[in-house]
């Protein structure tokens, strides 16, 4: 959590040396489809097409005081954020990704100067491989969840709260928790009453089950194309924050994710990746209970392979 508002302002000011604020837009066609006021926070409008640029800038800012070279495990967007931050802050990064990582994310990683290693069938296995590499080569392994990452993410919800008054609910996808915990940090330091709802795919619902059981619950495998939220083992640290601060966590089917990707294009002409469409899907599912409420959704990213995207757009 933030000590005070000055800490959040300091992090935001640092980020704005390298990135610009993203827009929050209430689209007429979205409002008509949902039957109430919806605000979309467009984190797909960053230079890497993902909110991870924010968390990464803050983490490298903190970590660069001790080291110049790092490695990490990523489903793609976190690695892009770290690659961007490493490049602008003159550091080096090796990114370990699962072997089925989106090609568009891999191309972006390489364009940003990262060394990419394809290892492991999913994030959990890839992280173990990256950890072993870091030990053997004496290179710092950057965490996939930490309070510094969440504090970096907090700037997007800070922008949202400053530009939109009286938000009743915010829907946020959950990977390992940096984005949603950052939203919690911001809401709490601003003393807002907004309810925060986490969203996961049904095929990667470890956080949903953990929240339901009020205890960390692992799953044996993931089955979702929403790569950024394809998590088998939750973070203890982020989960404990969620237990105390979230209104709810909901799970979304693969079919509803795909339909939402198509609807986002139809309603806003924006591209959303699988994880990026989760909040839209959850808010649409809750549209009747949200009547007359002021609702915000976080569109976390747009990095989806062209072949997959074209199939979804043409089918639905």
Please tell me about this protein's structure.
The chain has 316 residues and is α/β, with parallel strands linked by helices. The protein folds into 2 domains: 5-50 and 147-315, Rossmann fold, CATH 3.40.50.1100; 52-141, Rossmann fold, CATH 3.40.50.1100. Helix content is 46%, strand content 15%. The strands form 2 sheets. Strands 1-2-10-7-8-9 form a 6-stranded mixed β-sheet, sandwiched between helices. Strands 5-4-3-6 form a 4-stranded parallel β-sheet, with helices on both faces. Helix 1 crosses helix 7 (147-163) and helix 3 (52-63) packs across helix 4 (77-88). The termini are far apart.
Please specify the SSE layout and strand pairing.
Elements: H1 5-15, E1 24-25, H2 28-34, E2 37-42, H3 52-63, E3 69-73, H4 77-88, E4 92-97, H5 103-111, E5 115-118, H6 123-137, E6 140-141, H7 147-163, E7 169-173, H8 178-189, E8 195-201, H9 206-213, H10 236-245, E9 248-252, H11 254-268, H12 278-285, E10 294-299, H13 306-315
Parallel strand pairs: 2-10, 3-4, 3-6, 4-5, 7-8, 7-10, 8-9
Antiparallel strand pairs: 1-2
Helix pairs in contact: 1-7, 3-4, 3-7, 7-8, 8-10
């Amino acid at each position: 959590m933030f000590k005070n508002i000055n800490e959040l302002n300091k992090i935001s000011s640092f980020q704005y040396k390298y990135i610009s604020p993203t827009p929050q837009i209430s689209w007429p066609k979205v409002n008509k489809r949902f039957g109430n006021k919806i605000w979309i926070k467009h984190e797909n409008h960053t230079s890497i097409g993902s909110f991870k640029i924010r968390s990464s800038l803050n983490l490298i800012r903190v970590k660069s005081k001790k080291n110049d070279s790092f490695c990490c495990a990523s489903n793609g967007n976190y690695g892009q954020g770290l690659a961007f931050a490493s490049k602008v802050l003159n550091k080096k990064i090796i990114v370990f990704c699962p072997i089925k990582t989106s090609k568009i994310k891999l191309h972006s990683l390489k364009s940003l100067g990262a060394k990419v290693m394809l290892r492991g069938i999913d994030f959990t296995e890839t992280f173990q491989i990256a950890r072993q590499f870091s030990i053997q080569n004496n290179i710092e392994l950057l965490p996939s969840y930490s309070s510094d990452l969440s504090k970096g993410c907090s700037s997007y919800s800070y922008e949202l709260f400053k530009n939109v008054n009286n938000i009743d609910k915010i829907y946020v996808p959950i990977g390992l928790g940096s984005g949603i915990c950052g939203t919690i940090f911001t809401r709490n330091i601003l003393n807002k009453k907004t309810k925060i709802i986490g969203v996961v795919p049904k095929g990667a619902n470890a956080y949903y089950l953990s929240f339901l059981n009020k205890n960390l619950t692992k799953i044996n495998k993931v089955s979702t194309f929403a790569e950024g939220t394809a998590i088998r083992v939750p973070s203890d640290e982020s989960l404990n924050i969620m237990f105390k601060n979230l209104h709810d966590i909901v799970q979304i089917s693969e079919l509803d994710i795909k339909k939402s990707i198509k609807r986002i294009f139809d309603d806003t002409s924006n591209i959303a990746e699988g994880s990026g469409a989760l909040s839209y899907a959850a808010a649409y599912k809750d549209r009747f209970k949200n009547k007359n409420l002021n609702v915000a959704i976080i569109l976390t990213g747009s990095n989806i392979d062209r072949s997959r995207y074209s199939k979804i757009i043409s089918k639905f």
